[in-house]
């Protein structure tokens, strides 16, 4: 008679081993801290950043909540007494300055702050946000469509008000897009407020559509739907690298620049805040910046450079007063813009 004991013992051991493995795996999963991260970064960047971050910090799991700059800023202000996000990663410094004024940010300065360019650091106490990378506003100019229509290459911002461009321009909506608000602020600072609104009245006649995001105007220009999309440098160079007949225009009379930054959200549980601090430390480091260099040209770290040809926007002077002015005047500027131009579809 053949004994079944050895086989039974082997099966029992396999069952026990599987149970132990499941226990340890479930324990490892439970040990991961899930943090909710609000971001206005471009969608194609998120999976790459998540994979790298979770590889380097394996006990942290990222849940992205992506939206436009305007939407996320409004949401964070509304949620400041009952916050949902643990961390902001990839939001304009104008919005971060406003959120700081609204007491929505928890003060935190990463250890690597001293290794970052001074322009990328919160200029006022208590230190609450840190810049990651910068971008410049400009125009995506479809050279093929312009040639077919006999349109001259714009040299100055005021050239965009030329009636020859009637219905051939796309621009981001300032209420939903940080790029759109930056454009309005740039024109006011370059021309003076009265002259800037006069310019925008003339430009309005040429705008076919106000888009909900800052990259959409450039995408439309790259597809040939518009001759010109007022947008930002990274998107123009990305579309050009993919074969679109796009030229990045940086007007001779000056360009505005802005930072994508990060900050802790105030009022979150201690475990969440601790994990979010580690993410900020990671994002301030060299390895993260080498990743960001794939998407941006001007980085907070001077010891990491981009392989692409980007304008060095950090070399243009922007004072702390300029940042505070935009944050302080955001609601007034948006209300005035809506009053004048809200009839255009998005």
From TrEMBL:
Molecular function GO terms recorded: thiamine binding; thiamine pyrophosphate binding
Recorded superkingdom: Bacteria
InterPro entries: Ferric-bd
GO biological process: thiamine transport
A GO term from the CC aspect: outer membrane-bounded periplasmic space
UniProt keyword annotation of Signal present: yes
Keywords: Signal
Gene3D superfamilies the record matches: Periplasmic binding protein-like II
Leader sequence segment: none
Keyword Signal among record annotations: yes
Protein name: Putative 2-aminoethylphosphonate ABC transporter substrate-binding protein
Species this protein is from: Phreatobacter cathodiphilus
Organism taxonomic ancestry: Bacteria, Pseudomonadati, Pseudomonadota, Alphaproteobacteria, Hyphomicrobiales
């Amino acid at each position: 008679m053949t004994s079944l004991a050895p086989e039974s013992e082997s099966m029992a051991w396999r069952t026990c081993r599987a149970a132990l493995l499941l226990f340890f795996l479930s324990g490892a999963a439970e040990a991961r801290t899930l943090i909710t991260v609000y971001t206005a970064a471009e969608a194609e960047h998120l999976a790459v950043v998540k994979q790298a971050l979770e590889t380097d910090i394996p006990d942290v799991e990222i849940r992205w909540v992506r939206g436009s700059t305007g939407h996320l800023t409004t949401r964070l202000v509304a949620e400041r007494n009952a916050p949902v996000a643990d961390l902001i990663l990839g939001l304009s410094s104008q919005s971060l300055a406003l959120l700081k004024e609204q007491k929505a940010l928890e003060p935190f300065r990463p250890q690597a702050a001293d290794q970052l360019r001074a322009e990328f650091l919160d200029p006022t106490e208590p230190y609450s946000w840190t810049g990651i990378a910068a971008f410049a506003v400009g125009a995506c100019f479809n050279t093929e469509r312009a040639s077919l229509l006999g349109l001259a290459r714009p040299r100055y911002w005021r050239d965009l008000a030329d009636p020859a461009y009637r219905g051939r321009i796309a621009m981001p909506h300032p209420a939903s897009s940080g790029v759109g608000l930056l454009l309005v602020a740039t024109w006011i600072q370059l021309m003076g407020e009265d002259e800037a609104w006069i310019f925008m009245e003339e430009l309005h006649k040429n705008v076919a559509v106000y888009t909900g995001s800052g990259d959409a105007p450039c995408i439309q220009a790259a597809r040939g739907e518009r001759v010109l999309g007022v947008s930002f440098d990274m998107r123009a160079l990305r579309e050009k690298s993919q074969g679109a007949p796009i030229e990045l225009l940086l007007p001779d009379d000056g360009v505005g620049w802005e930072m994508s930054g990060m900050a802790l959200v105030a009022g979150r549980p201690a475990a969440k805040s601790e994990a979010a601090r580690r993410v900020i430390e990671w994002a301030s480091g060299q390895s993260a910046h080498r990743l960001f260099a794939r998407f941006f040209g001007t980085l907070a770290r001077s010891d990491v450079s981009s392989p692409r040809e980007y304008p060095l926007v950090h070399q243009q002077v922007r004072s702390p007063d300029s940042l505070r002015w935009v944050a302080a005047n955001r609601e007034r500027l948006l209300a005035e813009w809506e009053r004048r131009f809200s009839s255009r579809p998005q």
